[in-house]
Write a sequence for this structure.
């Protein structure tokens, strides 16, 4: 069991180190293929909010790399094999397909990226090996980035820092429902462990939460959380007011 424990611990920091080291490299080696990408590289578009406000689709992950200093993390959606039902949580979900030649394994993973300052995105990737799956999921997460509003709005906190969400939001995915509520400073993140990674990368420090449904399905609970956070998105808010 000890060996398996090491496996996840070694892989995760490597993701961060790799991302940090090559951000400049990625941007300088990048040859944009879309008009939006060319505008970003030429410096015509200076902030990610300009793109998100205009509802433009980001088709190149380098765009978000160029405009934001991103950190990434993998969420534990799978489990390593263990006897008697005791598999340890692991970043890779391993599945198998049976063929005449034998079993073919494939790995999927769920990544979250964020700048710890109001931008966050998730993406899932699937491949025959672990590392391509990780790269795919991080790339997709960068394409799915969106803005989260933050504020100080808890009734018993009167600071002016952006440390929690501006109001109570609900999110849903599959059978899982989640309610996120503003909290005063110093509360910390009162949420499931995997959600802490998401909220931290979004730049939210204090929040209360309530969940309903089968919470052990990490995939759904993360999606529900993203659904809830998306409701603080200024763009989404305007849509709801119009309704
Ligand atoms: Zn406050």
């Amino acid at each position: 069991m000890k060996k398996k424990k090491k496996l996840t611990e070694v892989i995760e920091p490597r993701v961060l180190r790799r991302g940090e080291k090559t951000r400049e490299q990625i941007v300088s080696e990048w040859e944009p293929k879309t008009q939006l990408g060319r505008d970003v590289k030429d410096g015509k578009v200076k902030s990610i909010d300009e793109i998100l406000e205009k509802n433009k689709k980001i088709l190149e992950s380098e765009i978000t790399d160029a405009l934001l200093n991103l950190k990434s993390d993998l969420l534990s959606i799978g489990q390593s094999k263990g006897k008697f039902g005791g598999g340890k949580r692991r970043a890779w979900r391993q599945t198998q397909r049976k063929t005449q030649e034998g079993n073919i394994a494939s790995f999927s993973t769920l990544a979250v990226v964020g700048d710890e300052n109001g931008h966050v995105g998730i993406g899932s990737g699937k491949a025959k090996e672990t590392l391509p799956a990780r790269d795919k999921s991080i790339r997709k997460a960068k394409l799915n980035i969106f803005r989260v509003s933050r504020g100080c709005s808890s009734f018993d906190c009167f600071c002016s820092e952006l440390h929690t969400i501006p109001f109570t939001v609900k999110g849903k995915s599959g059978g899982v429902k989640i309610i996120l509520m503003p909290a005063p400073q110093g509360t910390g993140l009162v949420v499931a462990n995997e959600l802490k990674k998401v909220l931290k990368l979004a730049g939210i420090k204090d929040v209360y939460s309530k969940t309903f449904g089968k919470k052990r399905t990490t995939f759904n609970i993360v999606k529900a959380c993203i659904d809830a956070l998306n409701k603080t998105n200024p763009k989404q808010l305007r849509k709801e007011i119009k309704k």
